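Changelog-adjacent note: as of this version, every example in the card shows the full chain rather than a window. The one below runs 149 residues end to end.
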Amino acid sequence: MDKKNKALELYLEGFKLVEIAQQLGVSQPAVTKMLKQFPEYHHEKERRKKENQEKAKQWRNEYKKQKREQDKEDYEALQKDHMDAVRSLSRKGKLSNDTLIKLCILHYDYNKEKERLVFNGSAGKRPADLPRSIYVHKNVLKQFRVPTH
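Full-length structure tokens:
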């Protein structure tokens, strides 16, 4: 069997041009030149092209689907965080001491004698809605990692 027919046979079996060139010991452009003489090559080339386009389309659709799902999850998490913040910062209710501690813990120092968190002033002027000091039980302080010693 001559190289042209062998190249066509391998191509119709599904081999790539590079693989055919390696098996026949010729360059890839030489393989292409050999195959262009056969009408079967053009039909197979079109079939592969359509197959690859369909695979690419399916991959893009799957990627878009995954992206939409991830975006939806991210949006829902963001919306939940936003609603939590709205509820905790709403003017309708007063913030609990726990919420105040969570939001402003870095601006308070623990006074061991009085068992209170005292506004430290190093952060600047104390806002009117923040208390000067807050009584906090030692067990509550542990969850905020404020040293008690």
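Structural remarks: The chain has six helices and three strands.
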